[in-house]
Every structure is written in C-alpha cells, then in structure tokens.
Amino acid sequence: MAGLIKNQILKHLSKFAKNVSSDSVNVSTLKGEGELTNLELNETVLTDLLELPIWLRITRALVNRVNLKIQWTKLKSVPIAVSLDEVQVEMETCSELRSHQSGSSVLPSYGSGGRYGFADKVIDGMTVTVNSVLITFRSHAFHATFQLSRIVLDSKNPLWQKADLRQTRLKDVDRGELLIFKELSWQTLRVEAKSTCDQALTPLRLITNQARCRITIKKKLTDCSVVGCRLVLLMDDLLWVLTDSQLTAAFHFIDSLSDLVKQAAQESQKTKAVRKLESLPEFQAQLAQQVQQARGSGSSQGRGSSSGGSSSRSSSSQSNVVKVFSKYDVPETSYHFYSERIDLHFCDDPGRKY
User: Fold this and answer.
1) Which domain covers residue 9, as residue numbers?
2) What ranges does the record give for the region Disordered, renumbered to this chain (predicted)?
C-alpha cells in the first residue's frame, strides 16, 4: 500500500520537481504523513504557478525539506498540509520577453490539460507553510535579495475567512470558469538592493513587519488554464528612511526595468483584447447555448416530464450562483496595494558636505 501511494506522489510531484526519486520520499500510509528532502524544483513550472510577469523568470529553486500531512478521509473538506523548511529561489529579468500565448488563457505547464477535476481541487486547496525563503533577483543594473520568514499560504472563502475547502471556490458552469481564493501571509520581509553599474550608489534597505496578500485566481473548467488573477497586498504601517543617494539608486533601479515593463504591458493588451471579445454578450450567449446542448444530449432521455416547479427552483438557484460569481469575478489580471499608513523620511547622506 505504501509503495502504491508513493508512486502516486511521485507521479504528481515529478511535474514540480526535477530530481525526485523513490529514495527521497518517505511515506507513512496509516498516519497520512510523508517527507521529502533536497528537492530541486522545476523553474518553468514554478514560474507558471506563481503567475510571474513575462519579463521575469526563475532560474533555480531549491527546498531542503518538505513534510506532508494528508487526511485521507477528508480530502474534500480538509486541505493537505505542506510544510517547507528553507527555500532558495534565484530569478532574473529576461533579455527578451518570455513567450506568451495569444489566447485569452494560459495552459499551465504543470496541468494535465484535462477538465478540472478532483486532483486539481486537492492541489489548489493545499495549505503551505514555510519557515524561511531567500529570493535572489538579478538584472543588468542591480542585484536584490528578499528574505521572508514564517510564510503561510492557505485557502479562504470569498469573504477572506477560514472555511471548509468546498466554500473556497466559486464555479459558474455556464461560463465554464472557476474562482479560487488564497491568502499569503508572512511575519517579516527584508529587502536589500545593490547597483551593479555604479558602486557609489548606496544600497537600498527595507524591513517590514507582518503583511498579507489576497489572491483571486480565475481558471477555465475545460482545461484548468489560468484566465486571470487579482492580487491585493495589504500592509499595516510602512516606515522607510531614504538618503539622497538611496533615492537616486531607487530611481535608477526603476528606470532600468521600465522598458521591459512597457513591452510586457503592450503584450498584455493583446490578451485583454481577446478577453474583451469573449466577454461580449453574443459570445457568452453562444457559449451558453453550447453548454445547454451538451447537457441536453445527456439528460433529455427519460426526463422529458420534469415538473415546472423543479425547473423554476433550478433556474433561481443558478441565477444566484451567477450573481455571486459576478460579484467576485476577475475581469483581468490586476495588482493592488493597500496600507494603513506610509511614512517616508528623506534625509541627507551622513557626512556629506555642500
């Protein structure tokens, strides 16, 4: 039994990790626990999973230890708990933008390509905790490091409250789309950036306390492809002290990325155009008609005399689903920032003479 479960874990894990083997997986079948060590994650898959901008890519990702806890009898309502110790990630800007499909959705490299099913629900519902993450970022103008501690990624309901897993998703069958609600939180974040072109520029440093990020992901039910994502970063108080040279360095870093960001924005306009076309009433009506025809072909036989009252209740229930889905819908990918208070202090460099 343990060998069978181990093979299933390896089958799914091989999509995310490069060097995974049966020797690196320890499984306790009865306890529903497993442990993996020294994993090298697949950079392409991780880039897709994190929905990174097309001007950015991951070059390396390592995890020293992973612990799994699975409640076999409650997979539909209780998430799989994944605990990671230390994660190291290296990323860089692209000299040329990563390839972007011309369609309105992107089929993830880790997906099966089939219809959204039970295995996808289990993966999307996982709760992930990480002790520490070290991210190294490289561009032609500067290098930066991000250190995060006590990270938690878990599922929430549309009101951003803890709930049964079945309440953390919204599905609209007529649209063929699904909304998933996840919240990412961390205890501390340390950022440091240094110029590689001008050593005279003072490094930028920023330390923040607790923060959280609310993520809404929209997928297609037909192939599990990601249609859009809304990311909202929430912080309590932000205090940042900048000297003259640090302010100059900040403008220098932003300017070095501006061209890539503009190119990526132009590419995203093409995707938005296709999405706008698909959101037209004519397209939606045609899609709904196809869905109804597909349903009717399988259920018309033997159910021709269903009561009008049952049909009315079904129509009312479906109308409520559409209203709720529309309320939390993600028309297009967007990023938002909210803070209770921001304090920026500007001062002269120590010892500077005028």
Assistant:
1) 1-31
2) 294-319
Four-CA torsion 113, 116, 117, 119, nearest 10 degrees: 60
Q: pLDDT category, 231, cuts 50, 70, 90?
A: very high
* This prediction's pTM: 0.77
Same domain, 106 and 10: no
Q: Is residue 171 located within the same domain as residue 87?
A: yes
- Tell which residue, 310, 87, 69, has the closest CA to residue 186: 87
Taking the C-alpha atoms of residue 156 and residue 163, their distance in angstroms, rounded to an integer, is 6
Contact between residue 195 and residue 156 where contact means Cβ atoms under 8 Å apart: no
Do 220 and 104 share a structural domain? yes
Tell me how many domains the chain contains.
2
Q: Which residue has the tokens 């093979």?
A: 7
Q: Are 34 and 22 in contact (CB under 8 A)?
A: no
CA 329, 49, 148, 344 torsion: positive or negative?
negative
Tokens of 29: 């079948």
- Characterise 256 by phi-psi region: left (phi > 0), alpha (psi -120 to 50), beta (else): alpha
Strand pairing of 127-138 and 81-93? parallel
Q: 170: closest CA among 213, 128, 124, 126?
A: 124
pLDDT tens for each residue of 171-221: 998 888 999 999 999 999 999 999 988 887 889 999 998 899 999 999 989
Same domain, 122 and 158: yes
Rounded to 10 degrees, what is the CA torsion of 153, 156, 162, 165?
-100
Nearest to 154 by CA among 177, 131, 126: 126
